């Protein structure tokens, strides 16, 4: 595990020539305890992945430039799920 500022990077499979994260891995945001598991490209969340909050809620979907791309699935810790999308106000339920 590597500590980079407020981030802990765990198990990234590939680093590119510039030292950025590329490949499948996990990143823990120390502030708030949010965890992302999925694909990275150029140090950004890029491709399929899942973001999980400390309370167990999670969003699964495609990520581009570290933002949810298109429609994702939000699943609560209790198992309820619904579709969401990224807007200028953050993630909104559809």
Write the layout of secondary structure elements.
Elements: E1 2-4, E2 7-10, E3 14-15, E4 21-29, E5 34-41, E6 44-52, E7 58-64, E8 67-75, E9 81-87, E10 90-93
Antiparallel strand pairs: 1-2, 2-4, 3-4, 4-5, 5-6, 6-7, 7-8, 8-9, 9-10
Give your account of this protein's structure:
The protein has 94 residues and is mostly beta strands. It has one domain (2-93): Histone H3 K4-specific methyltransferase SET7/9 N-terminal domain (Single Sheet). It is 0% helix and 66% strand. The protein has no helices and 10 strands. The chain has strands spanning 2-4, 7-10, 14-15, 21-29, 34-41, 44-52, 58-64, 67-75, 81-87, 90-93. Strands 1, 2, 3, 4, 5, 6, 7, 8, 9 and 10 form a 10-stranded antiparallel β-sheet that branches. β3 and β4 form a beta hairpin.
**What distance separates the N and C termini?**
36 Å
What structural class is derived from the secondary structure elements?
mainly beta
The third-level CATH topology is Histone H3 K4-specific methyltransferase SET7/9 N-terminal domain
Number of continuous helical runs: 0
Query: Are there runs of 5+ residues with pLDDT below 50, and where?
Result: 1-8
Instruction: Please state the CA-atom Rg, rounded to the nearest Å.
Output: 13 Å
Percent in helix: under 10%
How many independent structural domains? 1
CATH class: Mainly Beta
Q: What's the CATH architecture?
A: Single Sheet
